[in-house]
Amino acid sequence: MPGEWPLLEAHQADHLARKGSDRITNAVALCPNCHQRCHRSSDRDAFTEGLYAKVGRLARE
User: Fold this and answer.
1) Integer CA distances (angstroms), 53 to 24, 47, 50, in order
2) How many domains does the structure of the chain reveal?
3) How far apart are CA 51 and CA 58, in angstroms?
4) 4 in a structural domain
Protein backbone atom coordinates (compact mmCIF):
# COMPACT_ATOMS: atom_id res chain seq x y z
CA MET A 1 0.00 0.00 0.00
CA PRO A 2 1.24 3.49 -0.70
CA GLY A 3 2.92 5.13 2.25
CA GLU A 4 3.71 1.87 4.04
CA TRP A 5 7.28 0.90 4.78
CA PRO A 6 8.52 -2.66 4.46
CA LEU A 7 9.18 -4.18 7.84
CA LEU A 8 11.73 -6.79 8.84
CA GLU A 9 12.32 -8.18 12.29
CA ALA A 10 15.56 -9.60 13.65
CA HIS A 11 15.30 -13.24 14.67
CA GLN A 12 17.97 -15.24 16.47
CA ALA A 13 17.94 -18.83 15.18
CA ASP A 14 19.18 -20.00 18.57
CA HIS A 15 16.81 -17.93 20.70
CA LEU A 16 18.18 -15.36 23.12
CA ALA A 17 15.95 -16.82 25.83
CA ARG A 18 17.80 -20.12 25.35
CA LYS A 19 21.19 -18.42 25.73
CA GLY A 20 21.69 -17.87 21.99
CA SER A 21 23.95 -15.00 21.00
CA ASP A 22 23.13 -11.76 19.22
CA ARG A 23 25.90 -12.34 16.66
CA ILE A 24 25.33 -12.02 12.92
CA THR A 25 25.96 -15.77 12.58
CA ASN A 26 22.84 -16.35 14.70
CA ALA A 27 20.59 -13.61 13.32
CA VAL A 28 18.38 -13.33 10.28
CA ALA A 29 15.89 -10.67 9.14
CA LEU A 30 12.35 -12.00 8.64
CA CYS A 31 8.98 -10.53 7.81
CA PRO A 32 6.65 -10.40 10.83
CA ASN A 33 4.67 -13.46 9.67
CA CYS A 34 7.76 -15.64 9.27
CA HIS A 35 9.14 -14.39 12.57
CA GLN A 36 5.95 -15.45 14.35
CA ARG A 37 6.13 -18.79 12.51
CA CYS A 38 9.58 -19.38 14.06
CA HIS A 39 8.16 -18.91 17.54
CA ARG A 40 4.55 -20.07 17.50
CA SER A 41 3.76 -22.45 14.64
CA SER A 42 3.50 -26.22 14.82
CA ASP A 43 6.25 -26.48 12.17
CA ARG A 44 8.66 -24.02 13.84
CA ASP A 45 11.50 -26.54 14.16
CA ALA A 46 11.30 -27.52 10.47
CA PHE A 47 11.03 -23.85 9.47
CA THR A 48 14.16 -23.02 11.50
CA GLU A 49 16.02 -25.94 9.88
CA GLY A 50 15.09 -24.40 6.53
CA LEU A 51 16.66 -21.12 7.60
CA TYR A 52 19.93 -22.90 8.39
CA ALA A 53 19.81 -24.55 4.95
CA LYS A 54 19.04 -21.32 3.07
CA VAL A 55 21.15 -18.76 4.93
CA GLY A 56 24.76 -19.86 4.63
CA ARG A 57 26.16 -17.57 7.34
CA LEU A 58 23.89 -18.98 10.06
CA ALA A 59 25.91 -21.21 12.36
CA ARG A 60 24.57 -23.47 15.08
CA GLU A 61 25.69 -22.46 18.54
Assistant:
1) 16, 10, 5
2) 1
3) 8
4) no
What confidence tens digit (pLDDT) does each residue in 8-37 have? 999 999 999 999 999 999 999 999 999 999
| Structural domain includes residue 61 | no
Indicate yes or no: pTM above 0.90. Answer: no
Query: 1 lies in a domain?
Result: no
26, part of any domain: yes
Please, are residues 11 and 22 in contact by the beta-carbon 8 Å criterion? no
* Dist CA 30 CA 37 (whole Å): 10
Cα dihedral 49, 42, 27, 51, rounded to 10, equals 30
List the domain range (segments joined by +) for residue 49. 12-54
